[in-house]
Amino acid sequence: MSYMEQQMQQAMEASEHEYNELMEEFRPPSDWDRPEWEVKSKVHNWRNYASEGLKREWQAFTGRQKIMISSLLDGLADNEHWD
Question: What domain range is 83 assigned to?
């Protein structure tokens, strides 16, 4: 394996490790990367808490940002209390 190949391999492994740590820490909803904004669900739906501006900008966010934001919104949705 050449030096460049080794460097690429190490970078990929570091990225995978960071991704796994983020997923473990934040536990985002399953559709965090490509949410279907148009799919409506009345109760415990993290997408209900996203503003129109956030929805428009979603694809501009990094994966890290999407994980963190969707996890935060999912926590809000999980705390809903319905009578």
Answer: 1-28+51-83
